[in-house]
């Protein structure tokens, strides 16, 4: 006789947006969704810390542009805390510079304000489960935006990223580079002849070793180190070597 499974508890969600109409609309859209429990709302980033202390949410859905403390500053403060909830930022732009900064600060992804309700619900659930909400295409756009700074800044960022990348074990570097290319765990497992569980373990160790919050930050580190540029150079040159077994 099979043992009945216990349903997962609902995702505890806080909505933070300075526009009361937006908050009301999000609450209406998300409040009736199965598996999501809206436990609180805030109108400014400065309210987030107290709301989190009191309500213990799993996810904060955070507007990035607010007149007091904006969502970027609130995300930076929140993600420095131990056991911080995941953060999904709300924006009106696909590749806003502030979105990139929020992801560097530890946000698990972003959704556009005109995203269909079902997709916002899906994003909240996925982030709560530890899966960042950024498609490979959006990640590439954000990375391209990151590369648009001053040359000296890019050079210093590349040197820092390469030092951090070099601190990883060889197989961890392989996995990190694959994450940077936008590969899923299953795709990485197939390419490196590993199990999906082993890939997940490598990703967890990379996050811990580099003190990162999610795999999007791994991808940004790989980009900052210039490793994707090297891949493109090798592809153009027709180079390639055989794989190796663990």
Order of helices and strands: EHEHEHEHEHHHHHHHH
Helix content: 40-55%
Integer count of domains: 2
What's the level 1 CATH class of the largest domain?
Alpha Beta
Oligomeric description of these chains: single chain
Beta-sheet strand percentage? 5-15%
**CA-atom Rg in angstroms:** 19 Å
Mean pLDDT: 81
Q: What name goes with the CATH superfamily of the largest domain?
A: Response regulator
* Alpha-beta classification: alpha/beta
Low-confidence stretches: 232-246
* Overall shape: globular
* E-strand count: 5
Shape-level CATH architecture of the largest domain: 3-Layer(aba) Sandwich
N-end to C-end Cα span:
40 Å
Largest β sheet strand count, sense and barrel closure: 5 strands, parallel
Strand order of the biggest β-sheet: 2-1-3-4-5
- Under CATH, the topology of the largest domain is which? Rossmann fold
Could you please describe the fold and organization of this structure?
This protein has helices spanning 20-31, 48-55, 71-79, 97-105, 117-128, 136-146, 151-166, 170-180, 185-192, 196-210, 215-224, 227-237, and strands at residues 11-16, 36-42, 59-63, 86-91, 109-112. The protein has 2 domains: 11-133, Response regulator (Rossmann fold, 3-Layer(aba) Sandwich), CATH 3.40.50.2300; 150-226, 3-Layer(aba) Sandwich (Rossmann fold), CATH 3.40.50. Strand 1 (11-16), helix 1 and strand 2 form a beta-alpha-beta unit. The chain is globular and about 50 Å long. The chain has a 5-stranded parallel β-sheet, sandwiched between helices. The protein contains 12 helices and 5 strands. The chain is an alpha/beta fold. Helix 3 (71-79) packs parallel to helix 4.
């Amino acid at each position: 006789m099979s043992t009945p499974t216990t349903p997962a508890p609902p995702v505890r969600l806080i909505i933070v947006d300075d526009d009361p109409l937006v908050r009301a609309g999000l609450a209406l859209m998300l409040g009736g969704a199965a598996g999501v429990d809206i436990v609180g709302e805030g109108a400014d980033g400065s309210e987030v810390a107290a709301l989190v202390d009191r309500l213990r949410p799993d996810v904060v859905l955070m507007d990035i542009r607010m007149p007091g403390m904006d969502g970027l500053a609130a995300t930076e403060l929140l993600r420095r805390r131990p056991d911080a909830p995941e953060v999904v930022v709300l924006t009106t732009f696909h590749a806003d510079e502030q979105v990139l900064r929020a992801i560097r600060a530890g946000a698990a992804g972003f959704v556009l304000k005109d995203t269909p309700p079902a997709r916002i619900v899906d994003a909240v659930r996925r982030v709560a489960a530890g899966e960042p909400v950024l498609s490979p295409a959006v990640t590439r756009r954000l990375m391209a935006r990151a590369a648009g700074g001053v040359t000296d800044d890019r050079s210093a960022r590349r040197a820092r990223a390469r030092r951090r990348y070099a601190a990883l074990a060889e197989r961890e570097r392989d996995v990190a580079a694959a994450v940077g290319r936008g590969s899923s765990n299953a795709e990485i497992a197939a390419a490196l002849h590993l199990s999906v569980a082993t890939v997940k373990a490598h990703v967890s160790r990379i996050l811990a070793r580099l003190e990162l919050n999610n795999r999007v930050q791994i991808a940004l580190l790989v980009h900052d180190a210039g490793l994707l540029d090297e891949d493109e150079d090798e592809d153009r040159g027709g180079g390639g070597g055989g794989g190796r077994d663990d």
